[in-house]
Write a sequence for this structure.
């Protein structure tokens, strides 16, 4: 169970490090507390989905891994392959942030760090608002995890949201193992014998007012500057999403 502990502690450094909430979280609580509590009540149930937020490449790579990984026995959780995907029967939702991708340059200043923290909170809120709802949230990007993971945990705690948050700034961290063990701990699996299903959303910035919107993935809206197509980077994820859209 060590990885579950690591996952929890990596997003809860606010206690040990004298965490101070950001003004953005306080303003959300002041302006939108009833709405946030309604979101909290409708998420965190085993019928929900596993939601990945962060940069497109990070989300797609993790989604692709979760679609096929078979590291555990699904019955007794022994670390041994059993021929069944570890996340069989689950729906894995990726919210691909094409609106803000220049993370590497932002931590250099205090203002940049604040933007990262706010951006991470916005990603978490987007996860709570999708129609299929969220039962476990994974912040895929290590920079967002480092600067904003504690803010997401802080917000969720203050609105009574029971969605576990898995994040880590360690690039070698196994999100799949942490997620599997956390779901076992919470009995959050659907227990359906079926291949995992992928769903895709995208965050894009409006060309007129620069407002960020989250909408179902549309290939034609992927910015030309993005070097990898979704189908090449995550073929199983894209195929699953494409098949669903044809029915």
């Amino acid at each position: 169970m060590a990885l579950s502990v690591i996952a929890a502690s990596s997003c809860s450094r606010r206690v040990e490090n004298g965490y101070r909430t950001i003004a953005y979280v306080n303003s959300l609580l002041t302006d939108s507390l009833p709405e946030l509590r309604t979101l909290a009540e409708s998420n965190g149930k085993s019928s929900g989905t596993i939601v990945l937020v962060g940069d497109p490449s990070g989300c797609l790579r993790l989604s692709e891994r979760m679609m096929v990984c078979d590291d555990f026995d699904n019955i007794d959780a022994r670390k041994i392959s059993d021929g069944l995907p570890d996340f069989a029967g689950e729906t894995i939702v990726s919210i691909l942030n094409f609106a803000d991708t220049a993370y590497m340059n932002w931590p250099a200043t205090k203002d940049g760090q604040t933007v990262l923290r706010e951006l991470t909170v916005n990603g978490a809120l987007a996860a709570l608002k999708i129609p299929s709802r969220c039962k476990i949230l994974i912040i895929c990007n290590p920079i967002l995890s480092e600067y904003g993971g504690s803010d997401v945990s802080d917000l969720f705690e203050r609105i009574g949201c029971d969605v576990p948050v898995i994040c880590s700034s360690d690039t070698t961290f196994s999100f799949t193992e942490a997620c599997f063990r956390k779901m076992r701990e919470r009995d959050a699996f659907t227990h359906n014998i079926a291949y995992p299903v992928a769903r895709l959303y995208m965050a894009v910035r409006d060309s007129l007012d620069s407002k960020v919107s989250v909408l179902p993935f549309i290939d034609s809206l992927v910015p030309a500057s993005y070097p990898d197509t979704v189908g090449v980077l995550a073929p199983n994820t894209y195929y699953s999403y494409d098949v669903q859209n044809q029915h």
In short: The longest helix spans residues 23-42. The chain has one domain: 2-245.
